[in-house]
């Protein structure tokens, strides 16, 4: 903070300590993440977290553990991604060795970088839906009972709209831009106005 830093971002990845430490190789405990967030807050720093759903072994319960951990961390912005098994990743090799995907699947996914959950997990669609609703889930713990029902629905445009709305809101806070500027930048990004 004394050097001028105002924001720190760190990869939580998952709230399930076993998945984080054993599968992802990140030997950081939840208590350490909570203490780090507390320290950042003490010094007036903003916190952003990045998270992931859909890794081998992920379930709805482990994904909600990630939501719960983020609620404890109380980040200023939370990002959540769906694991994509790109070639060369140790986690991709693990998925291949577990028989979840083939090398041919990996080559096909390389051409679709924002594909839905590529791994045939039991809760794949629910995990993908939760990824879209992750930001609101962290912001409002009271939504959890409703979200547990909604994520069991087929994927739909409403979930994508919620995701985009949350991302726009989070970006506007991060970039400190008002709604008109946000709309202008969004229209430009979408090619609606050049």
Largest sheet: 3 strands, parallel
Q: Which whole number gives the mean pLDDT? A: 88
Q: Give me the secondary-structure category.
A: mainly alpha
- How many helices? The count is 9
Total beta strands: 3
Overall spatial form = globular
Please explain how this structure is put together.
- There is one protein chain.
- The protein has 194 residues and is mainly alpha-helical.
- Helices cover 53% and strands 11% of the residues.
- It is built from nine helices and three strands.
- It has helices at 17-23, 30-42, 60-73, 90-97, 103-110, 124-139, 144-150, 157-175, 179-189; strands at residues 7-13, 46-53, 77-82.
- Strand 2, helix 3 (60-73) and strand 3 form a beta-alpha-beta unit.
- Helix 3 (60-73) runs parallel beside helix 6.
- The model has no long low-confidence stretch (mean pLDDT 88).
Topology:
Layout: E1 7-13, H1 17-23, H2 30-42, E2 46-53, H3 60-73, E3 77-82, H4 90-97, H5 103-110, H6 124-139, H7 144-150, H8 157-175, H9 179-189
Parallel strand pairs: 1-2, 2-3
Helix pairs in contact: 3-6, 6-8
